Amino acid sequence: MKSLGAWRTWAVGAVVLAVAAALLVAVGPRGAGAGEADTASGHRWITDRQGRALVLRGLSTASSAKQAADGMPWIEEKDVARERRALGTNFVRFLLQWRSVEPAPGTYDRAYLERVAERVRWYGERGYHVLLDMHQDLYGPKVGGNGAPAWATETDGLTSAATDPWELGYAEPGTVRAFDRFWGTVEGGGRDLRGHYVGALREVARFFADDDTVIGYDLMNEPWGGSVQGPAFEAGPLARLYQDGIDAVRTVDRNHWIFVEPSAIGANWGFANGLPRLDDPRGDGDAARIAYAPHLYPLPMDLGDGYTGDAKGQVDASLRSWRAQTEKTARRLGAPVVIGEFGLDVGLPGAMEYVEKVQRMADEMGAGIAYWSNDPGSWAPWDADRNPTALLPVLDRPYPRAVAGDPVAYRWDARGRALTVSWRGNRGARGGTEVHLPARHFPDGGRVTGGEQRSWDPKSRVLTVVSRPGANSVRITPRG
Length: 480
Ligand code: IDC
Known about the structure:
Elements: H1 2-24, E1 53-54, E2 57-61, H2 77-87, E3 91-97, H3 98-101, H4 110-124, E4 129-135, H5 173-183, H6 193-208, E5 214-218, H7 231-252, E6 257-260, H8 264-267, E7 290-292, H9 299-302, H10 314-333, E8 338-339, H11 351-365, E9 368-371, H12 391-395, E10 399-403, E11 406-413, E12 418-424, E13 433-436, E14 446-449, E15 451-457, E16 462-467, E17 473-478
Parallel strand pairs: 2-3, 2-9, 3-4, 4-5, 5-6, 6-7, 8-9
Antiparallel strand pairs: 1-10, 10-13, 11-12, 12-17, 13-16, 14-17, 15-16
Helix pairs in contact: 6-7
The protein binds ligand IDC.
């Protein structure tokens, strides 16, 4: 328990830091009017090829890729098929590793990208949208983490010890120095590491530019500032890396979305962040395709707690604050929102109540979700023996996969067994609104009021609906 005590001490220190940072940040909503849809949350939507607004629901694939020699996650094609069948998901956040993309300076591994493309195809054939996530934790394997290649890890002889929990490793000297070298915030060092990183992002984008299953690129998982923290980091080195990354991607890929994350410490718990608005060479407003993908781990959960009614209201307060901060940042960035990660050990007390709560919040916000993660085990919908966990029925939930208009609201009322979806206009979208109706709630399909059923595929469990002229809301209840 000593390590947990140390972690708590460190966490409290970080909270103080983050609060101070929040107070110092004076970034108002700049250009907030640009390109906003008429939604409750006032943010924009990622659309599919038919111009329909996408409600993204899925998981990350997968933590196992971090350690794999070939950089591949544990999944086989049959696992993708099972995930589609059992959960009705339409989204996956797929982990990439810089070490695999660029194994030697300036050398890009095409065979690796082809292996990724094969897996992207497995998802694409089942109607998924894939977010390619340039993942790292604790910088790279040379300092006890994952992500960066050894040749891009400069520590000046400083080392990092293993910690429990793993997040504490961000404060280990070797890791701090590796980040400082990467950002170029300490004197010395040889290579232009961030320049290499931007080059690796560009090569990934070049390879996938014409792949329609790919929805976009997550430029860096949970960026860490090393010895530079708070707004000094986010509005400084981080914003510069993102801008260079966006510019580089756009030289080879005009169309895919580019997802950015805040610095995780603080933002994951619901504190403010100083990420400034970024420019998309595609243009301003509706032309821009920059999305915001913060992670959600309220502090008690980050420390391994369950959600036992939340007697002191800490988690609920954290969720409220996280939502307010996320919406504020999304407005500043002119960006749609995807919860890039949230998750916990499903065996913890109240865990499923918490997951339900986050899903309801995401629905209210019009935010996408990538649950962390699908690695078989205690956090996942399947355990190590591939038996379903308590999470599976909670994630397998009715939702609109794609909305032919600007979504106003959608809600699954579990008690009343009704999915309601309302929208405005039709944004020139082709095709109807698609909803996922799980067998557990809609064994014989759905009965539509306020609109007309166009099609129903009991195998994929997708119902397509069009609203009556002038109407903008449908209600779907179980048939029979
Ligand atoms: C965790 C994995 C765990 C692994 C650790 C370090 O679940 O098995 O040991 O990474 O690589 C994040 C990170 C994400 C973490 C996840 C859960 O983005 O990589 O995965 N988490 O700890 N931020 C907050 C939580």
